[in-house]
Amino acid sequence: MGLQQGLVTWFAGVLFLSTLLLSCADVHHYEFFVRESNFTKLCNTTTLLVVNDSYPGPQIRVHRCDTVFVNVHNQGNYGFTIHWHGVKQPRNPWSDGPEFITQCPIQPGTNFTYEIVLSDEIGTLWWHAHSDWTRGSVHGAFIILPPENETYPFPTPDADQTIILESWYDGDYKQIIDDALAAGVSPRQPNAYAINGHVGDTYGCPNDTIFRMLVDSEKIYLLRIINAAMNEHFFFTIANHTLTVVAQDASYVRRFTRDYLLISPGQTMDVLVSANRNVGQYYMAIRPFSDSSAAPVDNITTGIFQYTNSEGGLNASLITLPAMTDTDAMINFLDQIRNTNVSQNPGINVPADKDIKTRAFIAIAVNNLPCNTCVLGTRLVASLNNVSFVSPRIDILQAYYNRNMSGVFTEDFPLNPPVFYNFTGDLTNFNTPVAEGTRVIVVNYGEGVEMVLQATQMGAGGSHPIHLHGFSFYWVGTGFGNFNNETDPSTYNLVDPPLVNTVHVPGRRWVAIRFFATNPGVWFMHCHLDRHSSWGMDTVLIVRNGRTEETSIRPPPSTMPRCPGT
């Protein structure tokens, strides 16, 4: 039954993609020159590693199912990689990008060309560096337009605008996390938050710039919102205007309207806004959300939604956003998100109970380990099922594909916590042993997979945006407290669950996801709060080859960057 279901799933996917390929599949080429440039914000000049001298970096703009080649030239001082966040890269993990997972870093003075293979993604994604904290300044939008003969499943916008939300640090992002890891402590907070590289008018420096979006009265605009922040979930609003969500993570959703959004690090949202108010200037604003005891700085960063021919000051200086700790606002927003059965989406194909061959229950935690050289005698680590991930020095994909390297990883990631406890209770004086290792999950091609992601109160608690490379998955369930495997599955939404690549796991709650493992390769899974990922809140999913060439990993390109010492 499992093989039969896998073949049906594969055939349905091939049929959908074949239909797309009849009308598109153009090839595009981009050149990324990555080097240091100076930027002045908050009355201070900082040197950052950026792409093509811009912050944020250049936008990639293509159509669904196109192929994109990006030649990345490292003109900086240290190695890095680039990830194409949310692109599934069917059979092509070689260009997925996470450092020491699917490739080794592009060294200074060298270049590497990524081949980005689009399939059914539609809407807004993004690209970013995937080495240490370099993504803080090396990132940009990846816009996927409908094919020429396809319309939007909502009113056609008159124009679109990318909105990238960012964490601004006065300093080198890599050095910030390197120093924190050496000391065993949490990295420092950002100096500001930014919208499209502008920190707005709330930080006290008279030279700071504010992002302005110019609009025409009575026109409809599609906002392409990307949370590229390092560690902050954000509320977003435009004063006196309503926001209609139409897509998340490059998949259309059932439309719903709010006066604010909640978007987590790694996530993207497509949002319609009508310029239907009195002609004038209105604040656009973000502030962080937190349900953790390790809260971010509660700053509000502003932009301006400006009608053409408007004069004078702001029409509505009052910014209405939920409080930073408003968990009801967080839950109320997340509860609205549903899939939509439109022809522009792939058909909803949620694995049924009988299809699930691998079940994982994963407890998410922040822990401490002894450290003689650290400031406090311990160091912060993070874990999934009490395993704190250790990045190898040879990439896992190369070791797995070549089968001639031992000691790089082990295939024994625990599918359940080694100790069950009251995950969401008071854990002030509670601790469980944590082991470090490079332990991965291995599944067969085509089988159904279910993962229950359980937030815990270990450490500071709070929410976690969990991202899985190589897949969009169905977010089928969520609930408060500890997951009950006898009663909670009956609450799953198997009819219209959102199809996402990054899921918000709220504090003191659980989330369940399902997908068919129809993309052979080595795929990183991690928290998109970068301090947590740096501490080891990561694992790897390996999907074995199927029985045919079309269900197997493609051969590697001959130009893959060499690993240090090889």
Overall description:
By secondary structure, this protein is mainly beta. It has a domain at 353-551: Immunoglobulin-like (Sandwich), CATH 2.60.40.420. It contains 5 helices and 32 strands. The strands form 7 sheets. It has a 6-stranded mixed β-sheet, with no helix packed on it. The two termini are 44 Å apart. The relative contact order is 0.14.
Per DSSP E runs of 2 or more residues, the count of β-strands stands at 32
Shape: globular
Portion of residues in beta strands equals: 35-45%
How are strands sequenced across the largest beta sheet? 10-9-12-17-14-15
What's the helix count?
5
CATH fold-type name of the domain at 353-551: Immunoglobulin-like
Helical proportion, percent range: under 10%
Tell me the Rg in angstroms: 23 Å
Instruction: Report the CATH architecture of the domain at 353-551.
Output: Sandwich
Mean pLDDT: 95
Keywords: Apoplast, Copper, Glycoprotein, Lignin degradation, Metal-binding, Oxidoreductase, Repeat, Secreted, Signal
GO biological process, one term: lignin catabolic process
GO molecular function, one term: copper ion binding
Cofactor: Cu cation
What is shown here, in short?
The protein has helices at 2-21, 173-183, 327-334, 396-402, 530-535, and strands at residues 27-41, 44-51, 60-63, 67-74, 82-85, 111-117, 123-129, 139-145, 159-168, 192-195, 211-215, 220-227, 233-238, 243-248, 251-258, 261-263, 268-274, 281-289, 301-307, 356-370, 378-384, 387-389, 435-437, 441-443, 448-455, 464-468, 473-480, 499-500, 502-505, 509-516, 521-527, 538-543. It has 566 residues and is mainly beta.
